[in-house]
TrEMBL record:
The keyword Membrane applies. One of its GO terms (cellular component) is plasma membrane. It is found in: Cell membrane. InterPro entries: LeuE-type. It is a multi-pass membrane protein. Its main location: membrane. This is LysE family translocator. GO terms for molecular function: amino acid transmembrane transporter activity.
């Protein structure tokens, strides 16, 4: 896989991981409820769920693109519309989008289980892989290139949420983050809308 293509892949995976949603809330809740270890565990096991979707993408959607290009194009446009909608909602959130925390106690086992389940049950992740990650897959792609795609998605996702758990485990960080949640929402909204426009303009490879 060319370096420039991999950098595009990494950037998209990073934006997908950093977008606010149930995954971030999960890691936040387990970090606050159980400390650093449950938060890190939730992030790592969330990455396993992401890796599962990435593996399905590289194994199956290449053939789907070849057989049903129109259907895939429609799904891609639908995914782009969904990303744009998320971006608009993030821009509209303003100060009401501040991150709230619950202090329920949690364990590493709960964090691991919920990390996987949230990843597998998150509709944003499903659309992300169908509409975006599959654009990096072609029928003639080598096994090594497919493995790079899967590992890149897993490492970036897990790395981001582990970092979130490590940072949020320091008590001084969370109030600062809550006070500036409106700016986080705005930046994320702009990124999602720009990404949706990029998807509509054509394939990424």
């Amino acid at each position: 896989m060319p370096l420039t293509l991999w950098m595009s892949l990494a950037a998209i995976c990073a934006m997908g991981a950093m977008s606010p949603g149930p995954s971030l809330a999960l890691v936040l809740r387990h970090t606050l409820g159980g400390g650093r270890l449950p938060g890190v565990t939730a992030g790592i096991f969330h990455a396993f769920g992401v890796g599962f979707y990435a593996l399905l993408t590289v194994l199956g959607l290449g053939a789907l693109m070849a057989r049903f290009p129109l259907a895939f194009q429609l799904v891609t446009w639908g995914g782009a519309a969904y990303l744009a909608w998320l971006g608009i909602k993030a821009l509209q959130a303003g100060r009401s989008g501040a991150i709230q925390a619950g202090a329920a106690l949690t364990t590493t086992a709960q964090a691991a289980r919920e990390g996987v389940l949230v990843a597998l049950g998150n509709p944003k992740l499903i659309l992300f892989f169908v509409a975006l990650l599959s654009q990096f897959v072609s029928p003639e792609m080598s096994v090594t290139a497919k493995a790079i795609i899967v590992l890149t998605a897993m490492i970036i996702d897990g790395g981001w949420y582990v970092l979130v758990a490590l940072v949020l485990s320091h008590s001084r960080v969370l109030p600062w983050l809550q006070q500036r949640a409106h700016w986080i929402n705005r930046i994320t909204g702009v990124m999602l809308i720009a990404l949706a426009l990029r998807v509509v303009t054509g394939p990424l490879w």
